[in-house]
Amino acid sequence: MAEDAIKRRLAAILAADVAGYSRLMGADEEGTFNTLKACRQSIDGCVAEKGGRIVATGGDSVLAEFTSAVEAVRCALAMQEGIAACNIDVPEERCMRFRIGINLGDVMISGDDILGDGVNIAARLEQIAEPDSIYISGTVYDQVRNKIDLAYTDLGEQTVKNIAQPVRTYRVSEGETTPSAPVAAAEARPAGPAKPTIAVLPFDNMSRDEEQEYFVDGMTEDIITELSRYHDLFVIARNSTFTYKGKAVDVTEVGRELGVRYVVEGSVRKAGNRLRITVQLIDATDGHHLWAERYDREMEDVFEVQDEITQVIVANLPRRVEAAHLEQSKNKPTENMAAYDYLLRAKDHHHKRSKEDNALAIELAKKAIELDPDYGQAHAWHSCILGQAWGAGYIEEETVLEQITEAALGLEANGQDDAECHRILTELNILFRRDFDKARFHQDRAYALNPNDPRIVSQRGETLIWFGEAAEAVGWIEKAMLLDPSEADRRAVHLGQAHYVARQYQEAVGAFKRSPNLGYKQHAILAACHAALGNMAAAKAEVDHVLKLKPKFSLAAEMDRAPYALDSDRKHHIETMTNAGLPA
Q1: Does pTM surpass 0.70?
Q2: Phi-psi region for residue 38, left (φ > 0), alpha (ψ -120 to 50) or beta?
Q3: For 535-551, what is each residue's pLDDT tens digit?
């Protein structure tokens, strides 16, 4: 009889909360409270205007009910606009960034409360959403797709906590239409204000000299880097665009595959000290050429040409940004073109990742520094390449650590206010010095200078793991996977680590499944996750993997290289791996 008394109705449920709320409160309680209060006033007004009812609030969270899925989505869009207005005078690191989930489903009524899977699904969608974004279930999408003209990105079926069946999920925004094929949530474009999306394809080497490939590739990479400095652009990373190198491509197909509106193509002819560079900007939706230019210059003018190409591309994009908004170092990279040439060669070998190429890259970076001891980027890349040797075990540990320490001193003495320099100094201060304050400073500066570099964006997430903010790290790593789709599988290991440290064990297991090449460290984390979930058979299988890959595995030795800022995270790591059966 009690079951017969339960009241039910169909409702659209909106769940919202603030990403990184605990961090914001820890940094500035009063400022965060005041900003949240302003956001809540805006949210309350939006809900009332769209005919909704706020069911519950708790700290930074909001749960609202609507009789119409259309009005729920319209309310979410209005909420994000209102929240953005509240953030106008707030420093970037203190901004409120809400994530919203909406579901249409059957709910149970208990007084003023609503209960059941219809509510839980909305809450789970909110939890997997990126900051500033809106996720809707398939039931909502079916109701609104022909009624509200928005960009709907199909994220496929998402497995969410405590919900038996996967949930068909879409992200909505007021930006340009995104590819219709389902993509994983971590590979989908972040929502929020619409940004022009652009990919720079590898320039063609017209010199008929294979020895010049490194120079042409370096030119392309530098243009990508310069474009990436613009906060109002979404720029696909080098690793993903270089998969098209040497191929005859259809720019409209490239646009679909990479999810971009604009494509840049070009060529370089280098003869002696003379350069001829051609470049064109194409609308990938229809193949229409928006702009083309040819540059005949001396080698010494290469940086000026790169700047000019970048600014002209930006000026020809809809909703373009002005050059004055470009946050970048105005330091000229080097006056010594031979040093620049050596650095391009070093980066070319570094990208190939083999032990032999790493050794060549180290020597070439040293030559660049010898030719121009004040060349900040040469010092930065020298340190980065040594870091690659340390991570891959290419050089004996004691030797490479001595070299990295020496390189760090050179970088600090000669590093400029350059994103690459700050990126490397972030790594050095976390991994080798455990100076978290300096690491946070350098990472913040690197991101401010180049917010579209996937290495910097991913590093932002990776550093948050060590800082004790693993739950927030997830969104940053997912954004890096989107900026550089070709590296998504590799970065999935960082995503898995973030979920593990955040105690999100099932999500960690799912993330690691995306990577085809797991090392012993990842298998160790998987063992800990399975043990925490109570699956001891799977944990033992992962322990066997670890010992097969690294027979002398020692948890104590691993912890020496794990730069956790919080004792609670260190203890969690030790306890979960010990419970899994890994040797101390």
Answers
A1: no
A2: alpha
A3: 999 999 999 999 999 99
